[in-house]
């Protein structure tokens, strides 16, 4: 009994001696270090063999990410004027596009511009924001192109919608805004065109727009499950 008691104390002291020597600041022993330290380069690692010493590289200037399209107009008054006259809605005026545009408009725009587009949204009525124009404002004479441009870049108190919406969604909203403008001006309703099923090239000015075909092939399995796989800008 006595000897067992002594042995226990002896083991405890030995255990303390071993554990207490370990410095917590030092790395501990590694079992199979290859599992922790990869042999390949780490994506954001620092290595002398690379220019600037870093593995991660910036894309080459002028690189266009897959599924993204550059917008040809800059954010300045000259380009805004050209977009206003030249930029046309590439989406056909189908009922689907109209309905989708209306839903998106109600989400993003109606709080300020109002359900009718008369500039009397809830935020205006509560005087949270001022200077929201009606879409039939003669001085502005908005067009398909100018609506798209203002959604892309925003204008003074109105923010940009380039990050929240895809190219297609912006053009759908565009159709709906034009329909509100027509209604405010008392014009007859525009007739829908039939759905052809043909894919639409969303920015007519770009020659290399077949980027979309590739993206479509890759995502075709998921497309129905997840709308977000569609082409984003
Ligand atoms: C936070 C409130 C707010 C929201 C939300 C908003 N707008 Fe505006 N919008 C404004 C204001 C304010 C102006 C006037 C800007 C100016 O001329 O200084 C404006 C102006 C416009 C114009 C006229 C631009 C021109 O050429 O003179 C259009 C078209 C327009 N908005 C469309 C939209 C669309 C489409 C959406 C939704 C995607 C939207 N707006 C969302 C506040 C808003």
TrEMBL record:
The keyword Iron applies. Keywords: Heme, Iron, Metal-binding. The keyword Zinc does not apply. It comes from the Bacteria. Residues 221-233 have a biased composition (Low complexity). Residues 96-181 form the Cytochrome c domain. Gene3D superfamilies: Cytochrome c-like domain (1.10.760.10). One of its GO terms (molecular function) is heme binding. InterPro entries: Cyt_c-like_dom (IPR009056), Cyt_c-like_dom_sf (IPR036909). Residues 189-233 are annotated as: Disordered. It holds the Pfam family Cytochrome_CBB3. This is Cytochrome c domain-containing protein. It comes from Christiangramia forsetii (strain DSM 17595 / CGMCC 1.15422 / KT0803) (Gramella forsetii).
